[in-house]
Amino acid sequence: MADALKLDISDGFAVITFDKPDARANTLGAAVVAEFHKVLGELKGRTDLTGLILQSGKPGMFIAGADLKELAMADTSRPEQIRTLIEHGLAIPAMTEALPFPTVAIVDGPCMGGGCEVALGFDVRLGGTHPKFEIGLPEVKIGLIPGWGGTQRLTRIIGPSQAAEMICSGDGARAARAKELGIVFDIVPSDKLEAEAKRILIGLHKSGTWKQDRVRRRQPVGLSEDQMQFTFTVARAMVLDKTKGHLPAPLAALDAIEKGCNRPLEEGLKFETDAFMTVVGTPINKGLIAVFFMNQKVSKDPGVADATLQPKKVTRVGVLGAGIMGAGIAAAHVRKGVPAVVLDSNAQALEKGIAGIAAGFKGLVDKGRMKPEDLVAALARLGTTATLASLSDCDVVVEAIVENEQAKTGLYKQLEPLLKPDAILASNTSTISITRMAQALQKPERFAGMHFFNPVERMPLVEVIRGEKTSDATVVTLVALAKQIGKSPIVVKDGPGFLVNRILFPYLNEALLLLEEGATPREIDKAATAFGMPMGPITLYDVVGLDTSLYAGKVLQAAYPDRAVISKILEDLVSMGRLGQKSGAGFYKYGKGLKGDDDPALAPILAKHQREKRTFTTDELQQRLFLPMVNEAARVLAEGIVRDPVDLDMGLILGIGFPPWRGGLLRWADATGLKNIVETLKKYAPLGARYAPPEPLLQRVSGFVPRFHFI
Ligand code: NAD
Hints:
Blueprint: E1 5-10, E2 13-18, E3 27-28, H1 30-43, E4 51-56, E5 65-66, H2 68-73, H3 79-97, E6 103-107, E7 110-112, H4 114-120, E8 124-128, E9 134-136, H5 150-158, H6 160-169, H7 175-181, E10 186-188, H8 193-207, H9 209-217, H10 225-243, H11 248-261, H12 265-279, H13 283-300, E11 317-320, H14 324-335, E12 340-343, H15 347-366, H16 372-380, E13 382-385, E14 396-399, H17 405-415, E15 424-427, H18 434-438, E16 447-452, E17 461-466, H19 472-484, E18 488-493, H20 500-516, H21 521-531, H22 537-544, H23 546-559, H24 569-575, E19 589-590, E20 596-597, H25 602-609, H26 618-638, H27 645-656, H28 665-672, H29 674-683, H30 695-702
Parallel strand pairs: 2-4, 3-5, 4-6, 6-8, 7-9, 8-10, 11-12, 11-14, 12-13, 14-15, 15-16, 17-18
Antiparallel strand pairs: 1-2, 16-17, 19-20
Helix pairs in contact: 1-3, 4-5, 5-6, 5-11, 6-10, 6-11, 10-11, 11-12, 13-27, 14-15, 20-22, 20-26, 21-26, 23-24
Bound molecules: nicotinamide-adenine-dinucleotide.
Nicotinamide-adenine-dinucleotide (NAD) binds near residues 345 and 430.
């Protein structure tokens, strides 16, 4: 037994308190499920009780969901094992619904997945005011669907449309929304929850209305044929639009809701189980669970081997440069409570940067993603200065001025003597060596890269780059700071392109070479999006800016001349002023929106560079784009650029949107089979060194376990 549940009976009330020992979160593993069965079994015949309350013993936490470690270890090749797991879970709400007295679940914190399904079996859910309150069924995010009745019970409580939206997106509802939807009966201050729950139980006990409600919740929802058609056509279209057809779980959930909603609950639950069985254990499910654990690893990683090393408290940051990146970096800090002072050598640029930050926050307020009072507080934390000396009280200064080594090191030399002795200086450079720039400093150990991605507001990744002399103390503080502002930092050793741009380069460059061989921009982009990338490489050029890409590409070509093949297409387009979205045309042309249209003017430009005109299959295009990335990734690992394959996979998922459901680049390679990859690479050997499997890849293939990830 897990000793997680305590049953108290007094004054006619049964109270179950869930408090999993030695754990921060309450999760539902097999042992806890068995305890639920036992405790609910004890209450089964108690006609003497006024009611039951389920609550958590952990403040700000109800039930985080199923125990994913157990789920990941379940033998999905044995369907009977999975069906047993489902039956055990389904029995919990079935038992609460059969109790001969009313029931209230007190939810004052996260109530997710299996936890939500347990709560949905109660007559009333009473929400608390704890800021961590959230209720939802996020199973699709790990490639599953709710399997303990969530698809059927939520549908009967809030209606099929709303239930479909919540379940197919996996997004939880905060307190106000949960009340509005009717998932919770009310939101009550945390310290009043128990008294209120008892008051509700007494009322229900007297009125007896809970009995009719239970009968009603077992009935079909009763939608007309037209309503059914409308609801599910819209829902299916929304899911397909969002998932581009890559993810089967939201569709399976929708199927279960559709088939079950006009049937009695018992039948609906069977549809749900059948739908669950179609998604569990699939490569997508496994890939997404792996990403869940990799994410956890990244979020707990201090960034250095010495786990006792404490980060320095950062109470104020300085930001050099108020351009696209500097403004974004300053905004990210002040939004998360870290005061920032911004300096720019150009007064107009500074003014524009600050105005942009304020406008960005206002936009968030308008969209309901930021409270007006938080906007005021964030702006109060934002300062500007024209003098370097005003940065003397900053704990960390992030430099984001023009990408020019002399400009950067010149500025460091002026700034360093003015800083506090233990202050850290970090550069947001995309292409310049951290180790080399550190030579301009008196204290190279206090210098590192802190590479944010554009747009900073939306991109979670920060590469914390260690130069040769960067100290652990510097790394641990920058990693903690990045987490403090809500980012996912990954520590990377200095080297051209660091991690993400280095592995992205072969992919982007290959797209240009494919154009030279006669592939069209659209078919290249389509092959990449069909693989699961959020956008194709040609569109990505337009988004990043062709000039920026050209510059970064040159640095990587110079660094790896053995395998980088140069295409002149970018140079040509840049010289014509076709810089991408920002100039209205790049590979595509742009009207008002950001969606690119085919541009007839591009064809003659491309024709100049075309060496041949052949047709390609999607498979071939995908192999051409992604296999050089695998080669580069094998080198990156062998060079110790990252400490772990997890960092590499998460870096690409967070930095370029590599499809998480493929588990990351290296997990995808593992799933494809490294031997198969080497075989396929042979086919492309005539194209040159970039397709030759590098030694570290061959070593893995001939090794004892031919994989990148061992777990
Ligand atoms: P930007 O041109 O938008 O902004 C640079 C700002 O620095 C300008 O406002 C300029 O006036 C100011 N500046 C120039 N010299 C200065 C000096 N000596 N002192 C103070 N201010 C000075 O550039 P950006 O796109 O924000 O890029 C900034 C840095 O971030 C670069 O190192 C770039 O490589 C890196 N980066 C850019 C991106 C991106 O997508 N734009 C992404 C990641 C990293």
